[in-house]
Amino acid sequence: MNKQRFASACETVFNTAQEQGQQRKIGTLGEKVLHAVLKHYIEPDETKHEVKVGSFYADIVNDHGIFEIQTRSFFALRKKLEVFLEISPVTVVYPIPGTKWLLWIDPETGEVTKKRKSPKRGGVNDAFSELFRIKHLLDHENFHLLIMFLDVEEYRYLDGWSENRKRGSSRCDRIPVDIVGEVCFNKTADYLQFIPEGLPCNFTSKDYKRAANVSLRTAQTALNILHQLSVVQRVGKKGNLYVYGRV
After folding, report:
1. CATH architecture for segment(s) 196-246
2. What's the CA gap between 191 and 90, in Å, rounded?
3. N or C terminus of the chain: which is more exposed, having fewer CB within 10 Å?
4. Percent of the chain at pLDDT exceeding 70
């Protein structure tokens, strides 16, 4: 993690937007701000951005291999990854908001509300819903995962179906404010980091849910992936629930 380089990447992207006459904070860049900042943070040399590899374009290709920055929809990454992994080491970069401030945009007037801090904090377990979509690739020798924790300002349109128009609203853009942490997964054993402290030797998804403070669905998805990676094994059943143990 390099805060100075991250700040420089933010400045580069914001200055480019201003030079093109675009508004810095309302998502008018052709490329989403968060994606663009992370691309410049990982590789400042723009000649190494958007490089064609086979029939696909990679976000970054440099001396360390291929980097794909994916903020969501990992399913769309599958075909590209299957090709890239046979050619080169590939690092999938997944940003997770640690602290998030929400700002709401009235789509009719363009008025933007004052920012308010979201009570929800992002955590490493937030990655499981996306990792599930590429779980068959996680143990490939060329696959690497970099989870980045960022403080962000999130702009959303007041276009939802609820009375205050917030529920079901669409996101405009996320503006990174600071980088606060990174977690790397370079080999299968690194996924042990996902197992929360306080679990007994044998545990169920409900135990995982309580220890990690996540939903039962997230706990079940996490254990499905960790079982796929042979980080945990199924050692029995307790009612309708599998009982797991560390490998």
Report:
1. Orthogonal Bundle (1.10)
2. 17
3. N
4. 94
